[in-house]
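Q: Joint fold for the lines below.
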Amino acid sequence: NAGVTQTPKFQVLKTGQSMTLQCAQDMNHNSMYWYRQDPGMGLRLIYYSASEGTTDKGEVPNGYNVSRLNKREFSLRLESAAPSQTSVYFCASRLQGAGELFFGEGSRLTVL
Amino acid sequence: QQQVKQSPQSLIVQKGGISIINCAYENTAFDYFPWYQQFPGKGPALLIAIRPDVSEKKEGRFTISFNKSAKQFSLHIMDSQPGDSATYFCAASIADNQGGKLIFGQGTELSVKP
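A: Joint structure:
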């Protein structure tokens, strides 16, 4: 049982390059989330998808876009990477709007 | 805007001691308060959670104390062990049909010395 799977686990980009972080869950969850984790800042919500076909901004959406491809998959795209986007990104999912949030193992992104 | 404030940022406790981490929230509509535990290189995992209709919840050595009037809640780890060394996050959310956004505190790095 894989749970929440994120790819890639590590990535180095140059300023201005674009990339997409992929996330898939096999728990038949309705809601999916993207967080970024920075030292001293905790986990900050970037975007979320309450259900298939919907997406909404979180606390720090600037510079990112998302796509809820289907019920299983939720991708995060950086169109023009900036050094301020150097972070560890976590995808998470939950059954509905309450209860346990399940996290992936994270994607460490460095923007030079 | 940080809606959940967590302290301390780091904590060192001797083996067998009590670890206490505190959180304060602003939004009185929050109705779900979990604590997550994160080991290096891993994603956070749910440790224990509480809803505001109770003032305390205990699971093994871990206890959440909740003070609704003060808008504060805390995690107590009794008989702390080196294996408890991790980063702990408090969080809060509104259980609704719009995704139940979970807002996290800044995290506390706990180190339990043998």
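Q: Anything notable?
A: Chain A touches chain B through 29 residues (CB under 8 Å). Chain A has no helices and eleven strands.
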